[in-house]
Model the fold of this input.
Amino acid sequence: MDYISENLQLIKEHIESAAKKAGRNPNEVTLIGVTKTIEEERIQRLVDLGVKNLGENRVQELLQKYDNITGKPVWHLIGHLQTNKVKYIVDKVALIHSVDSLKLAQEIDEKSRQHNSVTQLLIEVNIANEESKFGVSENDALKFAESITFLKNVNLKGLMTVAPFVANPEENRGIFYKMRKLFIDIKDKLDHNNNMDFLSMGMTNDYQVAIEEGANLVRIGTGIFGSRI
Ligand SMILES: *Cc1c(COP(=O)(O)O)cnc(C)c1O
Done:
C-alpha cells in the first residue's frame, strides 16, 4: 500500500504549490480523504499516514467505517443526505457539506437539539446549474443561508460545490471564482451567527485550480486511492 503514501505526498506538494501560487498559506487548506467504496484496510493506512479528515457519501457506509477505523478521524458527510437518515449521523460527523433544503437543515437542527449539540454544516451550491446535480442555485443561496442562521442547533460554516466533470481543470476556474465571490458576498451579508469559514471545492481532477481560486477544503478520493471500480 506504499502507493497511498506516494500519492499523498504528491497531493501535499500540489496543494502547497497551488496555495503558494495564489499567495496563500498552504496550512489554510485541509485535505479531506474521500473514502467512499474504499475498504477499511486502505482507509486505515491513510489515517495512519496522518490524514485525519475523511469524507463519505453514504450514511450506511459512514456508520460502518466510523466504528472500525481507529485513530480518531474526523468524518465529513459529503454526499446527498436524506432527511430520514439525519438521526443516524448527527452526533458522528464534524461537518455536513451537502445541505440543500430548509427541510433538511431543520431536521439536522431538531436532531442536534435532541443530542444537545450543534452541528456544523455547509450549503451545497449547484453553481454551474447542472441538472444532474444537487444543491441550491446561486440565486437562492443567500436567502437559504439567512434562514439557516435562525436555527439554533446548527452552525452555518460555509459553502460547498461539486464542479462539473471536465477534461481540463482550467474549464472550472470560472466556476470556482464564482463560488468564492458568492462565499464572500454571503459572509458579508449575514449579520448574525456568522461563522462562514469554509469553502469546500476541488476534487482529484481540479483541486489545484480550486485552491488557486480560494478553496480551503478539498475532497480527494481517486488521487489517493486510485480509481474506484
Ligand atoms: C467522490 C466525491 C469526491 C472525490 O472525488 P475524486 O474525483 O475521487 O477525488 C469529492 N466530493 C464528492 C461530493 C464526491 O462524491
Observations:
- The CA atoms of residues 158 and 196 lie 5 Å apart.
- The mean pLDDT is 96.
- DSSP finds nine helices and eight strands in the chain.
- The two ends are 17 Å apart (CA to CA).
